[in-house]
Design brief:
Elements: H1 2-27, H2 44-51, H3 53-86, H4 93-105, H5 108-126, H6 133-158, H7 161-169, H8 174-185, H9 187-203, H10 206-211, H11 219-227, H12 233-279, H13 285-294
């Protein structure tokens, strides 16, 4: 009875999570112009999506911005997290850590508004500060870097420092230790941080609304601007394509992490079995006694 209740509870949880997504994908193949009324199966909204230059341009800009934001956030988050975890004795460490995590608790409206005001001032004084992809990337990276640093710091704290010390004892320089020992060991955390910041950047609306300019509008901003006048079924098609892209990325990430986990398990078993092989006698006690008696 308890097992049946547990399965029913799990089914209800998954239904709550994924039924809205499944219904969106199903209605993307609906021929009707009404979003919530099913008529019959059709691919015409995907054909219409190929002709919708505004949605395609927003989708392309969002993909580019999210990819670059993921890379920059991982690099900057790795530097900040490594300094806070490995170099614990420097002045202002607590202040630096608090400032690194501050964007996590700062409302996105404040972040977007502050960067927009800074760009307006720069444009008035220096003639620089046009709102385009670069300004959106700066705002997204400012937020994504904090998330990436938290993920990477948690992995660095779990990492055994003796591995890095052993590499230094064998003659490796600090940069060699970082690139040959530390980075491979925290690779799953780097991938998780990249996917997290990629998703946050692709999904962001508030900061993009402040920093997007003419000709540089991300996909979520386009969808929200169209939602004011009623949703078009083409939005369901572009949302389904986005779900497909995200699902493929998540599956590839899970396969990569599973492969790394299996490789670590094999290496761990090999490390445990190797000493036992070395200490295992090549002859049995009976054979050893016979050898001694023969001598």
């Amino acid at each position: 009875m308890i097992k049946l209740f547990s399965r029913a509870w799990m089914a209800a949880v998954y239904a709550f999570l994924y039924l809205p997504i499944v219904s969106l994908v199903v209605f993307s193949f609906n021929e009707s112009t009404l979003v919530t009324v099913w008529s019959r199966f059709s691919l015409k909204w995907y054909e219409a999506l190929l002709r919708d230059e505004e949605l395609l341009a927003g989708f392309t800009l969002s993909i580019k911005t999210a990819f670059l934001c993921g890379l920059l956030s991982v690099v900057l988050g790795t530097f900040g997290g490594y300094a806070l975890v490995r170099f614990t004795r420097f002045r202002g460490r607590i202040l630096f850590g608090s400032m690194l995590n501050l964007p996590l608790v700062m409302p996105e409206v404040i972040v977007g508004l502050s960067i927009m005001l800074l760009l307006v001032m720069a444009q008035d004084l220096l003639g620089f500060g046009q709102r385009d992809m670069l300004t959106i990337l700066i705002g997204h990276t400012q937020l994504g870097m904090a998330y990436a640093a938290v993920v990477i710091m948690s992995r660095l704290r779990e990492l055994n420092p003796a591995l890095e010390e052993a590499a230094q004892d064998l003659g490796a320089r600090p940069l060699q230790v970082f690139f040959l020992v530390t980075l491979p060991l925290i690779a799953p955390a780097l991938l998780s941080a990249f996917l997290l910041t990629f998703t946050l950047s692709f999904d962001d609306v508030v900061i993009s609304a402040f920093l997007a300019g003419p000709g540089a509008t991300t996909l979520p901003v386009v969808i929200f601007s169209r939602a004011k006048f009623g949703l078009n079924p083409t939005v369901n098609a572009v949302a389904s394509v986005t779900i497909l892209v995200v699902t493929v990325g998540v599956v590839l990430s899970a396969l990569y992490e599973a492969r790394l986990r299996r490789r670590r398990e094999r290496e761990r078993r090999a490390d445990w079995e190797e000493p036992s092989k070395l200490s295992k006698p090549t002859t049995t006690n009976h054979e050893w006694k016979l050898t001694e008696e023969t001598r």
